[in-house]
C-alpha cells in the first residue's frame, strides 16, 4: 500500500472516530495521519519522496495564494486610485517547464493571478506568451515568473 493511500485511510479513520465527515475533519485527519506516518517512516523504508512531495505541493499552494493576494491588491489599487500605473503589454517568456502537465499548471496559475493572462504556448512548449497589466519591465516579469511560479510548479511535479 502506498504511503499516500495509507494517509488517506488514516484521514477517513480520523473523521469516522471523531464523527466529523466534513472537509475540515478530513483535513485534520490528513494532517494527523501525515504526522503519524512521519514519525514511523523508518518502518516503511524509502518514503522520503512522499513527505518531500507533500511539502512541495503545500509550498506551491501557499505561495500561489500569496501571489494571488498581492496581485489582487495591486490591481485593485490601480483601479481605485485616480493615477493609473498600468502599462499593459504582451510578453514572451521562455519556459524551463517540461511536459504538458507542468506547462498546463503554470499557464493556469498565471491566468488565475489578477493582472496576468496566458495567451498562447508554442508548439514545442518552450515559450509562453502572456498579457501583463503592469508590463513596464518585461525582463523582470519573465524572471519573476521563471523564479517564482514556474520553479514552484517544477518542484511540485518532480
Amino acid at each position: 500500500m502506498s504511503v499516500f493511500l495509507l494517509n488517506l485511510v488514516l484521514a477517513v479513520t480520523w473523521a469516522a472516530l471523531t464523527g466529523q465527515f466534513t472537509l475540515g475533519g478530513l483535513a485534520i485527519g490528513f494532517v494527523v495521519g501525515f504526522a503519524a506516518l512521519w514519525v514511523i517512516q523508518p518502518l516503511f523504508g524509502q518514503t522520503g519522496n512522499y513527505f518531500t512531495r507533500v511539502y512541495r505541493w503545500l509550498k506551491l499552494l501557499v505561495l500561489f495564494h500569496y501571489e494571488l493576494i498581492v496581485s489582487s491588491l495591486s490591481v485593485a489599487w490601480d483601479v481605485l486610485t485616480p493615477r493609473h500605473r498600468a502599462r499593459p503589454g504582451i510578453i514572451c517568456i521562455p519556459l524551463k517547464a517540461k511536459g504538458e502537465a507542468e506547462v498546463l499548471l503554470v499557464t493556469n496559475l498565471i491566468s488565475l493571478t489578477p493582472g496576468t493572462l496566458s495567451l498562447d504556448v508554442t508548439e514545442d512548449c518552450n515559450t509562453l506568451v502572456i498579457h501583463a497589466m503592469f508590463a513596464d519591465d518585461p525582463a523582470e516579469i519573465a524572471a519573476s515568473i521563471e523564479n517564482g511560479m514556474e520553479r514552484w510548479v517544477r518542484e511540485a511535479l518532480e
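The chain has a mean pLDDT of 90. The radius of gyration is 20 Å.
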